[in-house]
Amino acid sequence: MKMKEIYNKILRFFFPYAGTVYSRIGGKKTIDAVVDRFYEVMSTDPLARECLDTHKKDLGEVSIKLKEYLYGWLGGPQVFVQKYGHPRMRMRHIMIPISEVEHRQWIYCMEKALSESEIDKNTQEEMLTAMNHLAGIIVNK
Ligand code: HEM
């Protein structure tokens, strides 16, 4: 094994998430705060009404699941996959009627939550673009 490979293995052992968006933005703590704020906006802002209405009254479970999903999706620990298997996000939303209206509102809440976070503007843009793409795939109505 070359020296560089050995060095990288050691680095990965001690810092498994080095260089990922997950670690750049501050890991679990930052993601938890963004998701908490995201559902707070969704449940209080009238502009997100239709999106809120697709959810169960108690947002506790989906809030934990979105946090776990985002850890892995941003390059951190794969908590969601370890617990529930392959993400299959479109399939997991297939029983929920989601149109462009709910899509826009979901992104609106996320944009608001991110803009109030400590995450730098470029990374916010990067995250929103990727989430917007995924949300577009989830649209099913
Ligand atoms: C396009 C707009 C979206 C709407 C309207 C929406 C709505 C929902 C609803 C209603 C649930 C079920 C939870 C409940 O009934 O309370 C759910 C689950 C979930 N959503 Fe979304 N969602 C959207 C986009 C996204 C995106 C972009 C992501 C990821 C970045 C995401 C991640 C999740 C996760 C991880 C779950 C839990 C899945 C499970 O139970 O296995 N959603 N979503």
Task: Explain what the structure shows.
The protein is mostly helical. The protein has a single domain, classed as Globins (Globin-like, Orthogonal Bundle), CATH 1.10.490.10. The protein is 69% helix and 0% strand. Helix 3 packs across helix 5, helix 3 crosses helix 8 and helix 8 runs antiparallel to helix 9 (121-138). The longest helix is centred in the N-terminal third of the chain and has 18 residues, at 27-44. The termini are far apart.
Low-confidence stretches: none
**Element pattern in H and E:** HHHHHHHHH
Ligand types = protoporphyrin IX containing FE
CATH domain class name:
Mainly Alpha
- Indicate the CATH architecture: Orthogonal Bundle
The CATH fourth-level homologous superfamily: Globins
What is the first-to-last residue Cα distance? 53 Å
Class by alpha and beta content: mainly alpha
Number of domains: 1
Q: What name does the CATH topology carry?
A: Globin-like
**Largest sheet properties:** none
| Approximate helicity band | 55-70%
Quaternary organisation: single chain
**Global morphology:** elongated
